[in-house]
Design goal:
The chain is an alpha+beta fold. The protein has 25 helices and 28 strands.
Length: about 800
């Protein structure tokens, strides 16, 4: 079987110079300076070195690839300082994957399948015997920001790297850079040996020479300037006396080299300053034959702080984009896609790697919609706006609202409506550096709106021609619409009724009860009411009716009007028949109410999610998330009621498992998942107990996720929901986390979540306690029905 390396091994330049390069990489912006820096390092065409080979071997083993290279790119070729799994020492630059990697020094270049990447699909290294499929290259970025080449791993099979492999590859690349920079410094030291004193004096890097007795023998001024000591103070003490106590053992292990024959080493530790603070120093050291230790250190305190902050922000950004339920697409000012989150992949059917770098309108937006909006905005502005991304640019420059109902086009050509918000990203006054688009699929909402319009039409027709009395009543009690049957029941004309209120024809003894029920309905204490009452007939007699009333809300949950149904029950037989019809209609309307309440709560959750996406303050984002969880907990109750055959109660044992599972999925963002152990009985609870109990579960589980499982720490959440004697129930929620701090008094905690829990437990007539104060476990005992709760 032919060796895939033969064609490279036999050709010292890597491949025959003939052939056509597919998508040859452009030159970096500062190519001349980069080539000068590469020459200055004196590394090209040098012999193999163990320090570099060890890093290449580590990269191959960590990433699980047969090939790993340290590649340096000069004017015409890429040369391999170290290589694993490849005999060739170089290839032409026009074929080099690494020539692409150095174009973005701060970014890992990953090519999962080169045959599907337009830059490399026709590359001879891909189509030839070597058969490259997978490539991942971490640029070798020097201190001045220029990339000399890359540490890359290669496979002949398509694949991906895990997050930990990416991190390790980038870390190894930094070690390669450190070795190159150390070589560069050592060369400079050799060239300037005769001027060492001047070198020590002028260097901004901290330099020192340490004797075998552990004392400094020589220091440059930068050393004292960085730490705040005089040279005399530093020379008078062992270098270990300045090292942070936690770093002493590791430092001793690093500097005990002559006995091990190690020539150079790099490590990081903390040095105490004269003011008592500590600075992080990055060391490169080398022993001399005389037993002295030559060391160079850089103050990396600010870099470490910036690195930690950048890492946290990067993790936050990835978490937000990954967990967002909305389609999020970021673009350049010209419309080239730079970010494409998982929700966008699911919504549009494209992979992020296939979309980044493409023009948004040509791929995603409905062309007809783009043309129509361009014409619409041209008319508003009084000048011609060309169809395309200029529509967004023009509106953003004028600071005009950029929220629209738009149409997207999925992969495959199907179009669907979205609610699209375009936010311009500004870099200084007047300069747009990009756009952030957040889209929500509103297909179901648009369908629901159309159904609602049709339903409203049929509903009004049903009111008009219904055989029972029906009416729409305003929030002030005025008749808004009445049907013929109602007029016949009360013996009055529609014109007469529409001039007054329902109280005008209500029997005096029934008005107070009516008003109490209407007030409770308006305040949300009840979602409908039904009662027998008396109206004054136009002929002066009393008419007994069965009255059913429901409050109708708009999409935002704002009350609109009441829907009233009246059935004449003056004659008992007719009353019984009409009562059945009214009951069936009432159940239909009640189920619709639960459905709409659930939908409205979901709309609120989506609005909170959309609003929180624009917040930069993590505390505010956390508050929004807590609000979302509470609304979602209530929505699940209404969802259960809507889907259940019992519109008055819900199986809370089943419901609480779904609720907790939903919360844990939301908070399980770490590498270790949160386990869930539940013991629940089948217990039917009325909605007025199930809703507050759901909110209690939401608060306690959320607290556990935020405190017991913080920082990606895994563990198990334990939940017990059981029926006890005398119609009492037990709810127990705990975790195996680190527990509560000593002296913690949950009864007096200022936490909003615990305040809500205390209020809700009182509301359902229960009592709450912690059997073991040091253990994060709450037990709540409460009656099955609120009617049996102690009113005190």
């Amino acid at each position: 079987m032919a060796n895939p390396n033969d064609s490279l091994h036999n050709d010292p330049r890597g491949l025959a110079q003939g052939g056509e390069a597919a998508h040859e990489a452009p030159l970096p912006p500062e190519e001349s300076a980069r080539l000068a820096l590469l020459a200055e390092c004196h590394i090209m065409d040098t012999v193999a070195e163990r320090d570099f080979d060890d890093l290449t071997i580590l990269a191959s083993q960590i990433c699980g690839t047969p090939i790993a290279l340290i590649s340096l790119v000069d004017e015409a070729r890429q040369w391999f300082k170290s290589r694993v799994g490849l005999e060739a020492t170089e290839t032409p630059r026009r074929l080099a994957f690494c020539a692409h990697a150095i174009l973005e020094p701060g970014k890992l270049l990953v090519v999962p399948d080169a045959t599907k990447d337009r830059r490399f699909a026709e590359n001879e290294l891909v189509t030839g015997e070597l058969g490259i499929r997978f490539y991942a290259g971490a640029p070798l970025v020097m201190e001045d920001g220029m990339a000399l080449g890359s540490l890359c791993v290669i496979d002949r099979q398509p694949r991906e790297l895990s997050a930990s492999q990416r991190t390790a590859l980038e870390a190894l690349a930094r070690q390669v850079v450190s070795q190159i920079q150390l070589r560069r410094q050592n060369v400079a030291l050799l060239h300037a040996r005769s001027e060492r004193e001047l070198f020590f004096t002028l260097q901004i890097t901290m330099f020192c020479i340490v004797g075998t007795d552990g004392f400094f023998k020589q220091l440059n001024p930068t050393f004292g300037e960085t730490l705040g000591y005089t040279t005399g103070e530093l020379l008078a003490s062992s270098f270990l006396s300045f090292v942070h106590p936690d770093d002493v053992a590791a430092t001793l292990a690093e500097v005990d080299w002559p006995s091990h024959g190690i020539r150079t080493r790099e490590f990081v530790n903390r040095y105490r300053c004269k003011d008592g603070s500590y600075r992080w120093l990055s060391w490169r050291t080398a022993p001399s034959p005389e037993g002295l230790l030559y060391a160079a250190a850089r103050d990396i305190t600010e870099a470490k702080r910036a690195e930690d902050k950048l890492r946290a922000l990067s993790e936050l950004r990835r978490g937000i984009l990954g967990s967002a339920v909305h389609c999020i697409i970021a673009t350049t000012p010209e419309g080239l896609i730079t970010e494409f989150n998982p929700a966008a992949e699911r919504m549009l059917g494209y992979k992020a790697e296939d979309m980044i770098g493409h023009l948004t309108p040509a791929i995603i937006h409905d062309p007809e919609e783009v043309v129509a909006r361009a014409a619409e905005f041209s008319a508003e502005l009084g000048r011609t706006i060309e169809p395309g991304f200029e529509v967004f640019v023009a509106k953003s420059r004028l600071r005009l609202p950029n929220e629209h109902e738009w149409f997207y086009v999925r992969k495959g050509g199907s179009r669907f409506p979205v609610r699209l918000t375009i936010t311009a990203l500004w870099d200084g006054p007047g300069k747009i550096v990009g756009f952030l688009g957040i889209a929500t699929d509103i297909t179901k909402r648009k369908y629901a709106e159309a159904r609602l319009i049709e339903s409203e039409k049929r509903f009004r027709e049903a009111i008009e021609y219904s055989a029972i009395g029906m009416a729409l009543v305003g929030l002030d009690g005025r008749w808004m619409k009445v049907n013929h049957a109602l007029c016949a029941i009360v013996g009055r004309s529609a014109e007469e009724l529409l001039r007054g209120k329902f109280q005008d024809i209500t029997h005096a003894d029934d008005i107070d009860e009516d008003m109490a029920q209407v007030q409770a309905l308006f305040e949300g204490k009840i979602d409908h009411f039904q009662r027998e009452k008396r109206y004054l007939h136009g002929e002066g007699r009393i008419v007994w009716v069965m009255l059913a009333v429901t409050l109708v809300h708009d999409a935002d949950g704002k009350p609109l009007h009441y829907v009233a149904q009246l059935d004449d029950i003056t004659e008992r037989r007719e009353a019984a028949e009409r009562m059945k019809a009214s009951l069936a209609e009432k159940e239909t309307l009640l189920k619709e109410v639960h459905h709409r309440v659930k939908n409205n709560l979901q709309v609120i959750t989506s609005l909170l999610e959309l609003q929180s996406a624009s917040l930069s303050d993590p505390v505010l984002r956390a508050r929004f998330r807590e609000a979302q969880d509470r609304v979602r907990a209530m929505a699940l109750i209404h969802e259960g009621l809507y889907r259940s055959g019992n519109l008055a109660a819900v199986d809370f044992g089943v419901h609480v498992r779904k609720l907790v599972a939903s919360l844990l999925r939301s908070y399980s963002t770490g590498a270790v998942p949160i386990a869930f152990h539940a013991e629940t009985d089948e217990v039917q609870l009325d909605i007025d107990v199930a809703v507050p109990l759901s909110l209690i579960v939401n608060e306690l589980v959320t607290n556990a996720c935020k405190h017991a499982f913080a920082g990606g720490r895994g563990g198990t959440l334990h939940l017990i929901f059981q029926a006890r004697e005398a119609d009492m129930l037990l709810l127990s929620i705990g975790d195996d986390g680190p527990g509560l701090p000593p002296g913690f008094q949950w009864e007096k905690s200022p936490s909003l979540g615990l305040k809500v829990v205390r209020i809700l437990v009182s509301q359902i007539g229960g009592r709450i306690g912690m059997p073991r104060p040091s253990e994060a476990r709450f037990e709540i005992i409460f009656p099955r029905n609120r009617k049996s709760a102690n009113p005190t």
